[in-house]
């Protein structure tokens, strides 16, 4: 198991390097770069200085290597410095956003908590809804509950989140006035009233994302439980007089959750992608909104870094899913 | 007696079996009717409802009177903030959305099947191609699509014109980022098919690889590809509308359902129906396509068929 984990970790490194190269080149070589947006009235020598100040006059390769070094070496050092008050980085150049002239990681650090609160809560609630629905649908296969569950799941991943989000805003925020339409990121939870305000503003975005996630996970749970219900050990357990609740909730559930856990791990990074849309609907000032804002003003360092962070998340959760699978299922041992 | 029973039981081809099984899936049949209705609405509708979706009154006074009208006989779905007929815009939007979904799916399936067949059939390039597939699967697709749309949109539109340029860019971008699942499925099927006797027989009489692939392998991977293609249409329509929703899809005078929804959001409080109609259209289309894909999967699986 350990050697497998190490081997998987080592193969993740070239994958990440290749992805970073793809992202960097795609963003960098694209025709619509900010260098072409400098007005023609600007004198050539000033233009030259502007480009040099952004560090954009270097060849692509130099910039790529510099960016890699900053991403994997300089920024973690700054992270350590911030945590322990040390001075490892010694003022090395960080990845600077062209838009705000602030370090990209500082922007990400400011935006990430909002995204994590909403996405994390939504994913948790989605899983908590999906599991009982999936289990009961499988236990009563082809019952009305199962049919309704199937329809719910189908609708869940067919109806786009930007539509459900806006319909929910229309009903609960505009017509009923229960919840605010816009997520206030400055709100700090200090007392009971602000906690209630926080809950109110989180309700709609979390519902939208949770419904979307629950749809997919409930399908996986259902098929996994169905597969296990037909196994011999279930018949044995029933034959020795074990109660139905115990059979399903103890024996079947334990075995059927193995693939579900990996699906949950694999799904997390896509949720971050989906959160881009949700953040746009509810005007949440999260990392997805930062990406969209950066794209619209051709802020290449921010776009490259945020996109690459998404890629890192995907590779990392793939790895976690693989390892979890090996730990949970003794039949699958990779060595 | 026996003659009559034989005659009533008409022989069915393999596709007849598939159709018979497909008809048993009630959801899929309802979805087929639904999708047919939507397709007729978009494709034949504009022939009956002959209002130009981009028609704006040139007379300013008339134009202001035409703006933001509610439903009426002249405009069953009302008009938008520039006095354009919403029903006509919905029809044209549907045409584009369906066209994007279909063409993007064709691109994705073409790439996916090619990669899958090559990887499954030729062992030498299998590792390389599957690494490529894994690499694509690890890419953050939505952010990359957004970046691609933003950076290449103006250039491509400048070369090919805003309509064709945006259409081709969106279709290629979606196709290039969604072929991986088809490739994996096809590769798995090809790996199993390659060892079957009929392929061995074909090879032993000296059939060249190209012809084995076209005559023997491809027809046998058709059913998983069909299912993947159906589900691919749904995914492509959603992706296009997400891009339009984020303002990085088609230009404003070029209505798609996603774009109409995006335009409607600014005035959702006063005119909610401008968000509701396109939203319902997208949802119904995707829901029908997904249900049809589900029914096809059951119908094309010989283990389920006949149960």
Derived from helix and strand composition plus strand pairing, the structural class of chain B reads mainly alpha
How many helices of chain B does DSSP assign? 15
CA radius of gyration of chain B: 24 Å
Name the chain pair whose interface involves the most residues. A-B, 46 and 41 residues
Rg over C-alpha atoms of chain A, rounded to the nearest angstrom: 24 Å
- The computed structural class of chain A is mainly alpha
Membrane topology (chain A): Multi-pass membrane protein
Family (chain A): Belongs to the binding-protein-dependent transport system permease family.
Keywords (chain A): Cell membrane, Membrane, Transmembrane, Transmembrane helix, Transport
Transmembrane segments (chain A): 120-139, 151-178, 198-215, 256-277, 308-328
Would you give an account of this structure?
The complex is a heterodimer of chains A (335) and B (307). With 335 residues, chain A is an all-alpha fold. Chain A has 11 helices and no strands. In chain A, helix 4 runs antiparallel to helix 5 and helix 7 crosses helix 9. The longest helix of chain A has 39 residues. The mean pLDDT of chain A is 81. Chain B is mainly α and 307 residues long. Chain B has one domain: MetI-like fold (Orthogonal Bundle), CATH 1.10.3720. Chain B is 74% helix and 0% strand. Chain B contains 15 helices and no strands. In chain B, helix 6 packs across helix 13 and helix 6 packs across helix 14. The longest helix of chain B is centred in the middle third of the chain and has 36 residues. The mean pLDDT of chain B is 81. At the A-B interface, helix 1, helix 5, helix 6, helix 9 and helix 10 of A face helix 8, helix 13 and helix 15 of B.
